[in-house]
Write a structure and sequence with these properties.
Order of helices and strands: HEHHEHEHHEH
Largest sheet: 2 strands, parallel
Strand content: 5-15%
Distance between the termini: 22 Å
Number of strands: 4
Structural class: mainly alpha
Oligomer: single chain
Helix content: 40-55%
Radius of gyration: 15 Å
Shape: globular
Length: 160
């Protein structure tokens, strides 16, 4: 989980490779209307996000083996929607860094529908993991291999 540019797709994909588990990119589950809205620089509303978050939860619920899904899941209420579709616990890795780090990353991306102008709205919506939520924060301003190593250690710890 995390705001745009934090590495949900690249970390998720690499983590799935090193841990030998499935990966789903949550961006692929967005309805076209959400993608169009974001591409036009309009932030999604909670009403826009709710069906997508339910789809994320259902995708995880259909999985027959451990699965990583990259999804912003910015608010606790959003994570609750995802959790409501699964009988077993859901763990969240919150990939985070300062806004300036993420602004630079988003500005450097080519071909992504999410413009840098929407980062402010994402940071405004972001609620860090609660003490009672399963998960860990990972500082993505660290080198990529360290991010993967920390994430891998957490995943392997949870799979024991």
């Amino acid at each position: 989980m995390g705001v745009s540019g934090c590495g949900k797709s690249s970390v998720g994909l690499q983590l799935s490779r090193v841990c030998g588990i499935d990966f789903i990119d949550g961006d692929d589950l967005h309805p076209q209307a959400n993608i169009t809205k974001m591409a036009q620089g309009e932030p999604l509303t909670d009403a826009d996000r709710a069906p997508w978050l339910a789809d994320v939860g259902r995708a995880l619920g259909r999985s027959t083996s451990p699965t990583i899904i990259g999804c912003s899941a910015l608010k606790r209420a959003y994570r609750d929607i995802i959790r409501s579709h699964l009988p077993e616990p859901v763990h969240f890795l919150h990939l985070h860094a300062g806004q300036e780090v993420l602004e630079a990353r988003v500005a450097a991306r080519v071909g992504h529908f999410m413009p840098p102008s929407l980062l402010d709205s994402q940071f405004a919506a972001l609620e860090r993991l609660g003490r009672d939520e399963l998960g860990r924060e990972i500082d993505i301003s660290r080198p990529f291999n360290e991010v993967i190593a920390q994430s891998e250690a957490y995943v392997k710890e949870t799979m024991k």
